[in-house]
Amino acid sequence: MPIKHWIPNALTLCGIVISAIAIVNYEYFLLALVVIPINAFIDWFDGYYARKINAVSTIGRCLDFFNDTLGFVILPMVITLPFVDASQLLFFIALAILYVGAGFFRLIREFIKPKKTTFTGLPTTSAAVIYLIVKLINISVFGEHTINTFLLFTTMIVLMILMVSHIKFCRIYQKKSC
């Protein structure tokens, strides 16, 4: 197997490593602010490159599944933990468990029955980026140490519903309309 066929999996492994680093250092929101967009690019590029050079593999799909779970399902929830008030911690943990379950369900559904032109349900990458943007807006409006939990909790619920929905979302690299 040519070395170029290992590049997509190596990129995915990089995404897994940076996500793990951000999870371990969850109290540093700025780290996640950098990691999630970089990992979103890696997630897009590794798949694009693997398809382009005909290096799509089962190992690559499994690594991508693991990267998506860590970087786009677990990381957004973990980075919110330091901002949640103690009085709302149990509610947040319950919502976070549901969010992780919805993300995991969405990833499994896509893993079992991948579609070439569309995604069924909001992709976890998109959900993580949307959540990050809402969290940034929240911090810029309410301050770094105070968050509007209603806004974040509502965002989590809407994203959960969209991830498990049967709404079709176009793939970024599609040239034809979906």
Q: How would you portray this structure in words?
A:
By secondary structure, the protein is mostly helical. The protein has a single domain, classed as CDP-alcohol phosphotransferase transmembrane (TM) domain (Four Helix Bundle (Hemerythrin (Met), subunit A), Up-down Bundle). It is 69% helix and 3% strand. The chain has 6 helices and 2 strands. A two-stranded antiparallel sheet has the order 1-2. Helix 2 runs antiparallel to helix 3. The protein starts with 6 loop residues before the first helix and ends in an 8-residue tail after the last strand.
Topology record:
Blueprint: H1 7-24, H2 29-52, H3 58-78, H4 89-112, E1 118-120, H5 124-142, H6 149-164, E2 168-170
Helix pairs in contact: 1-2, 1-3, 2-3, 2-5, 3-4, 3-5, 4-6, 5-6
What are the secondary-structure elements, in order, as H or E?
HHHHEHHE
Which structural class best describes the helix and strand composition? mainly alpha
- CATH homologous superfamily grouping: CDP-alcohol phosphotransferase transmembrane (TM) domain
Q: Give the N-to-C terminal Cα separation.
A: 34 Å
Instruction: Tell me the number of structural domains.
Output: 1
**Which spans of ≥5 residues are poorly predicted at pLDDT below 50?**
none
CATH class (first level) name: Mainly Alpha
How would you describe this structure in keywords?
178 residues; mainly alpha; Four Helix Bundle (Hemerythrin (Met), subunit A); two-stranded antiparallel sheet; 6 helices; 2 strands; 3% strand; globular
Give a brief rundown of this model.
Helices cover 69% and strands 3% of the residues. With 178 residues, the protein is mainly alpha-helical.
